[in-house]
UniProtKB/TrEMBL annotation, chain C:
This is ABC transporter permease. Belongs to the binding-protein-dependent transport system permease family. PANTHER family: D,D-DIPEPTIDE TRANSPORT SYSTEM PERMEASE PROTEIN DDPC-RELATED (PTHR43386:SF1), OLIGOPEPTIDE TRANSPORT SYSTEM PERMEASE PROTEIN APPC (PTHR43386). GO terms for cellular component: plasma membrane. The lineage of its organism: Bacteria, Bacillati, Actinomycetota, Actinomycetes, Micromonosporales. It is found in: Cell membrane.
Length: 772, 295, 314
């Protein structure tokens, strides 16, 4: 039974004299109980499309097409009629509940408001219903009189959902409902939303930039690009067997932990997501970034064509007269069994490193396909298009210095290192390689504020980063990972503990810090904010060398750094200002600014968190290449375990100021020992091994009140399952765990009283045995 | 001391140097300036504002007698200008760029650019003296006509006297409230919670009244109370122009001598009222904004 | 610390072959790019252009005034016009109570009014910006002390404070200038401090620190360029209110009794019976001059603000 039918929906913004098409000829149908996911990068028009359904767009926006909802055309309905439909029949869950809720009214008032408006009930009835609604989303009803700022982020999003359910609507439009929430909270919210709507037979349109999140919860999936649906179909099939090259690239952009093809090989797309209003040439708007482009793509008009069972794709390749793009890129669950063992993993899955010649693409593919499962790689080879798993070759901007023999002779280290890697050893395991950075007993405590205790942001951390190694530091927001990163580059002075750079303790005098900063550089999360808007690219990159008096060859230095960071030709960028660059280019400028000082260590704090999915892979690949070619070490801080799988050699999982698990990426991500790591892995929307998600209750506690004993025990599902008189529970509650010390290179280290108890069933059968 | 009060006090009377010196000593003018400042602070802290040189009366009682008219004038003017300014500001900001907005902004900007006392004199010439065809319809001086007796007639007379001074102040001051409220509303316009309110099916007027205005008022309230210092400045010149028997006119009178104890006295009163208003603004902000209240 | 050259394990980027092709001598980017963008944006705002035109006209008039106005027109003892005469062909804007041409007085008065306004603003901006920047950047004891001083000054109502100051300093344009600067630097300081705090919170300041910038380098290279537009806007608006304050203080009799300014014209018009004589030309001329110049500065300031702060354009 169709509840919502959208046909030929187009939205055009007016910018002065310009007409900016934001949504073009979108059509779909939705029945009660169905969840349609709409995925797309920023500027793809997905939110505009969603808001246009209820005509919530700014005045002066032109909308055409039909939106038939419960038999009524909403596009042409009168404003009075539309107001009656709004919320009573179709409600919205907005992203960022903090700003979508009115800060000066209580949440009770705000939930009551639509009930009083549409259902014309008394205040008492409305309040009682509000209490029930809050109850149903897991927020205590007594919090009705609280203001939004008094709730946690997850609770606010729950309130938004309760508010959306207030008038028992038929349709809920959820616009990025879980963006900016922690992984764990995101999983809770998604489950809540899907449970509620399936109980009430509500239709949902869920907008997200994250295709993998949608694939998990939606029945139907649509992918948007430049305002169009480029592919639509049943969620599971679309995600596992994408037909459109853009969808294929997007699915690859989300790493699947356990999939050897994405290990040390982040997937992405060249180029930048188009901005709305950018002139669209004739033909396919994706052609400029497409790896399978054909001559006809630039000329033939593109629409959605049938592409299999209940599926449509807007790509010429689905038409019978063109060669099929194949399903090369489809992640195949079968490969799950082929996880590389920790010892040889990186070498095998990164052909770029194992092939010293590195110039002939044909050579590197066989190197990769020595794994048992070679079919996908071969089919890609047959297509003759660059593959995502060859970072070195797939970009014209690749830095080839690594092949320069003279250079390798000059600087023994990188050469020696690549030799080691050729021998099949990850950098971290090389004998005799000194740690480049070592922290011991690091603590950062912020003085108490506003009646709370002192915040132990970093509460005892030992960690080493070896030369040429990439270490990922993973944790939820507020776990202290960013503080730790800043302490490593000397921006935060530790309360106690030491930071050693190449064996020498860091001192905090101005001159010592300045000297240290030539060697250790920081890359920040938000590149738009990290670049001074009043400086052009030249000055931005030249900033570091100027501060350190390296001005004799400034021009050359800046150009080389830009080229290294993949901005080529550098001349093209020198005089541009940050706002004239795309997000990916901005992040490259930040990285170039760091490279201009020729550091040996880069600390990157969520380097890709604010970037679009297709750009994310390109930036990660740049970091990986810098390591491979220049021998740069890196510590990458992220909330995303998938990132560790993409680029890191070792991974440290942090919880409330401590590292709770540390080891090689394969060891920790495939055979997690700590209950926290296991929970984090289980809620990832897309892992190769499907296991029941372990939802941790609540949200990460504050570093101002750290539980005694094991700091994780209040949320620990394993400890929670123990009976009250179990002596092990006393251990969890009462005995402080030692700080994890040592590299965690041979086997992973874990800070858990119950670690042996929690040895999981092998996550992926064969690999666990191979790893021993 | 460049402006010598002793000289201006004895102007027109033949005075010997010895007499001048004695007068100086009695006024404490022979001490170095920092010592006088300490004495002054000490006295002020103990509530001793001293004697006015000019009126031969205690400064405290002078201020007491002039306080009422000033509060009346400033209160009236503030009330009207805040109401007018906020209303115009909300309407301008909600439809910014509209004809109404441009007209309101233009008028208030022009009025703000006028010196208060000058506008006062223009209104005085126009409505009180009577200019050309315009008859003299409103009184020019003071706060009331002593010849009118009886409670009601007296009140009406005060109101008649109040019209021009308060109108002058309102016209100059309200522009600031328009500007603040307007930009405050424009700041809120992009807020997602307004989109939420619209999605709920509220009418445009309700979205504005129930959601946008309460939020936009928060920053405005603080600024209104902080502007009290500016209103005092306006009161001094307006009272001077209209000979309104308030603290502002008293300040002008003290200035002409200069009558330093009186000047200090009025200064203390003005400053403490500004400090008081700052405190009120703080308290009010805490009441209005739940985010601050919680802390 | 291990800051020796041997530690750098990868070659200098300049030695890398990849960049060989692009090592051509190419000049630095055009420095006027930002400025040209600013001018283009400004010209698109008619009100701002009008404001600048007004200011330019008055500035020219004030500068060339000595060429055609001298003691013959200004000295009470040397003029011979009719007293308080309405506008006529000979006296376009009438005469004052001593028989001087109001037009000549108004033109001459622009010199005093503008110069006091501009000099007071310069003092205000230098004092306020320095204190605001320091208070915003150094958040330790220095910032706290500076902020307390600023708060203390803000609690003082500006006109009574200026009156008290000029009463102590005596009559004259120097004391008026100082009084205006002392009473108005606080708002600049608060504004600049708030903007400094906002800029300091942005990641590029942290980036600069991570690149090795010292405190003073951060203030000069990162914060100041981002606070400068605000200072510029605030100073045009400060000139406007400084001119108004000058007129007010002079009107209250605190100005230099021997010099002619718009405020002193209004003072004598008020105290010498222009109101009762209905000498509207004598009242109107200096007031309108003040109005136009203040409007000119305000319009200019707002246009600059709109161009520099695209968020306001919306």
């Amino acid at each position: 039974m169709t509840m919502l039918e959208v046909r030929d929906l187009s939205v055009t913004y007016r910018q002065g004299a310009h007409a900016v098409p934001a949504v073009r000829e979108v059509g779909f149908t939705l029945a009660g109980g169905e969840i349609l996911g709409v995925a797309g990068e920023s500027g793809s028009g997905k939110s505009t499309m969603a808001m246009s359904l209820l005509r919530l767009l700014p005045v002066g926006t032109e909308v055409s097409g039909d939106v038939t909802f419960n038999g009524e055309n909403l596009r042409t309905a009168s404003w009075g009629r539309l107001r009656a439909v709004r919320w009573a029949q179709a409600s919205v869950v907005f992203q960022g509940a903090m700003s979508a809720l009115n800060p000066v009214r209580t949440i009770g008032q705000q939930i009551c408001e639509p009930i009083l408006l549409h259902d014309k009930v008394t205040e008492r009835v409305a309040r009682r219903r509000t209490a029930d609604l809050l109850d149903s989303v897991g927020v205590p009803a007594r919090r009705q009189d609280d203001y939004p700022h008094e709730l946690s982020g997850g609770q606010r999003q729950r309130v938004m959902i309760a508010m959306a359910m207030a008038c028992r609507p038929n349709l809920i439009i959820a616009d990025e409902p879980t963006t900016a929430l922690d992984v764990m909270v995101q999983a809770q919210i998604l489950r809540l939303l899907t449970d509620l709507v399936s109980d009430a037979n509500i239709g949902v349109i869920m907008i997200s930039h994250d295709l993998s999140v949608l694939a998990d919860v939606c029945t139907q999936l649509a992918v948007m690009y430049t305002g169009r649906f480029v592919e639509i179909g049943p969620a599971a099939e679309l995600f596992t067997q994408p037909r459109h090259p853009y969808t294929q690239a997007l699915t690859r952009a989300f790493p699947r932990i356990g999939d050897p093809r994405s290990r040390l090989a982040p997937g992405g797309l060249p180029g930048d997501p188009p901005t709305p209003g950018q002139a669209v040439a004739a033909g396919c708007s994706f052609a400029t970034r497409c790896s399978q482009v054909m001559p006809d793509c630039g000329t033939r008009d593109i629409t959605l064509w049938p592409a299999g069972d209940a599926r449509e794709a807007a790509c010429l390749r689905v038409l019978p007269e063109y060669p099929d793009p194949g399903e090369a890129a489809a992640p195949d669950p079968a490969v799950a069994g082929d996880v590389p063992s920790p010892a040889d993993g990186p070498a095998k899955s990164d052909p770029a490193k194992s092939d010293p010649a590195k110039s002939d693409p044909a050579k590197s593919d066989p190197a990769k396909t020595d794994s048992a499962e070679s079919r996908p790689a071969e089919s890609r080879l047959a297509d003759g298009r660059p593959t995502e798993s060859r970072p070195a070759e797939s970009r014209p901007t690749e830095h080839r210095a690594g092949t320069d023999p003279a250079r390798q002779a000059d600087s023994g280290q990188p050469a020696g290192q690549s030799a080691g890697q050729t021998a099949g050893q990850p950098a971290g395991q090389q004998a005799g390689q000194a740690a480049i950075l070592e922290v011991r007993g690091l603590r950062v405590t912020y003085p108490s504020r506003g009646g709370r205790g002192p915040a132990r942001a970093v509460d005892g951390v030992d960690l080493t980063v070896d030369a040429g190694e990439i270490v990922a530091l993973i944790g939820e927001s507020g776990c202290g990972k960013s503080t730790l990163a800043r302490a490593l580059v000397g921006l935060v002075k530790p309360t106690s503990g030491e930071v050693h750079y190449r064996g020498t303790g860091l001192r905090y005098s101005n001159s010592a810090l300045k000297r240290y900063r030539r060697h250790a550089q920081l890359v920040l999360q938000d590149p738009a904010g990290a670049l001074n808007p009043r400086q052009n690219v030249f000055d931005l990159v030249a900033e570091g060398p100027r501060l350190h008096g390296l001005t004799s060859d400034l021009n050359v230095r800046v150009r080389d750094a830009l080229a290294l960071a993949g901005l080529r030709p550098p001349e093209h960028f020198l005089s541009r200002f940050p706002h004239e660059l795309s997000g990916g280019q901005q992040q490259r400028v930040v990285i170039a600014g760091a490279l201009a000082l020729e550091p040996s260590l880069i600390v990157a704090d969520e380097p890709v968190a604010s970037l679009d999915a297709s750009v994310r892979g390109e930036i990660l690949r740049l970091i990986l290449n810098l390591r491979n070619d220049l021998g740069l070490s890196a510590l990458v801080v992220s909330h995303d375990l998938g990132l560790a799988w993409n680029i890191a050699d070792r991974v440290a999982v942090m919880y409330l100021g401590r590292i709770v698990e540390l080891g090689s990426v394969e060891e920790v991500l495939l055979r997690p020992k700590h209950p926290y790591t296991r929970a984090l892995l289980s809620v990832l929307p897309d892992t190769v091994a499907d296991r029941a998600p372990i939802l941790l209750s609540g949200e990460p506690p504050e570093p101002t009140s750290i539980a005694p004993g094991c700091r994780f025990h209040p949320r620990c599902p394993v400890a929670g399952a123990l009976t009250a008189d179990d002596p092990r529970l006393q251990l969890c509650r009462g005995r402080e765990l030692p700080v994890i010390s040592g590299g965690g290179r041979r086997e992973s280290l874990v800070a858990c009283h119950l670690a042996t108890e929690t040895e999981p069933a092998p996550m992926v059968g064969s690999s666990a045995e191979a790893g021993g | 001391m460049p402006a010598d009060p002793v000289q201006s006090m004895t102007r027109g009377h033949p005075t010997s140097d010895a007499q001048m010196a004695a007068l100086r000593r009695s006024l404490g003018l022979d001490k170095p300036i920092w010592l006088r400042f300490i004495d002054f602070v000490n006295d002020a802290l103990h509530g001793r504002l001293g004697q006015s040189w000019q009126f031969q009366q205690s400064v405290a009682s002078l201020i007491g007698s002039r306080l009422g008219p000033t509060v009346l004038l400033m209160g009236t003017a503030t009330l009207i200008s805040v109401t007018l300014g906020l209303w115009l500001g909300v309407r301008s900001g909600w439809r910014h760029g509209s004809l109404f907005d441009r007209a309101a902004s233009g008028v208030s900007l022009t009025l703000w650019s006028m010196p208060t006392f000058w506008l006062g004199m223009i209104l005085l010439v126009t409505f009180s003296v009577g200019l050309g065809p315009i008859p003299s319809i409103l009184p020019a001086n003071g706060m009331s006509d002593p010849s009118i007796s009886g409670a009601l007639p007296h009140t009406l007379d005060v109101v008649r006297h109040l019209v021009l001074p308060s109108m002058t102040m309102v016209l100059v001051v309200f522009a600031q409230y328009v500007t603040i409220m307007r930009s405050s509303i424009i700041d809120e316009l992009g807020s997602p919670y307004l989109l939420t309110a619209r999605a709920k099916g509220l009418t445009d007027a309700d979205v504005r009244r129930k959601h946008a205005v309460p939020n936009a008022l928060l920053p405005t309230v603080t600024v209104i109370f902080l502007h009290i210092g500016g209103i005092i400045g306006g009161a001094i010149t307006v009272e001077t122009v209209y000979s309104w028997p308030g603290l502002g006119y008293l300040t002008y009178q003290a200035l002409k001598v200069p009558d330093l104890p009186l000047l200090q006295g009025t200064f203390i009163i003005f400053s403490s009222s500004v400090i008081l208003m700052n405190l009120v603004a703080d308290v009010l902000y805490r009441i209005l904004d739940p985010r601050v209240r919680a802390q | 610390m291990t800051g020796t050259q041997a530690d750098i394990r990868h070659p200098r980027p300049s030695q890398l072959p990849a960049s060989g092709a692009v090592r051509a001598e190419s000049a630095k980017p055009p420095p006027f790019n930002a400025f040209r963008r600013f001018v283009r944006g400004f010209l698109a705002r008619p009100s701002g252009v009008a404001g600048v035109a007004i200011l330019f006209a008055f500035a020219v008039l004030a500068l060339v005034a000595p060429a055609f106005i001298g003691p013959a027109q200004l000295d009470v003892t040397k003029v011979s016009g009719p007293l308080l005469a309405p506008p006529s062909a000979h006296y376009l804007l009438g005469t004052d109570e001593s028989g001087r041409s109001v037009l000549a007085l108004a033109i001459w008065g622009a010199r005093a009014s503008l110069s006091v306004g501009v000099i007071a603003t310069a003092l205000t901006v230098i004092l306020g910006s320095t204190i605001g920047l320091l208070a915003g950047h150094y958040q330790g004891w220095l910032g706290a002390v500076l902020m307390h001083v600023t708060d203390w000054f803000i609690a003082l109502p500006s006109l009574p404070l200026a009156i008290s100051l000029s009463a102590v300093l005596g009559q004259g344009s120097a004391s008026i200038t100082i009084a205006i600067a002392v009473t108005s630097w606080t708002s600049t300081a608060r504004l600049v401090r708030a903007q400094t705090l906002a800029v300091e919170a942005r990641p590029f300041v942290e980036r600069a620190r991570a690149l090795g910038a010292s405190n003073s380098q951060i203030v000069v290279r990162q914060v100041l360029p981002n606070v400068m537009p605000l200072i510029l806007v605030s100073s045009t608006l400060t000139v406007a209110s400084a001119i108004l304050s000058e007129a007010t203080l002079t009107f209250l009799g605190l100005g230099d009794p021997t010099s002619v300014s718009w405020g002193s014209m209004l003072d004598s018009a008020f105290s010498r019976g222009a109101v009762t004589a209905e000498a509207w030309w004598y009242l109107l001329t200096p007031g309108v001059a003040i109005l136009i110049v203040v409007l000119g500065f305000t319009l200019t300031g707002r246009a600059v603000e709109h161009v520099l702060n695209p968020r306001m354009v919306k």
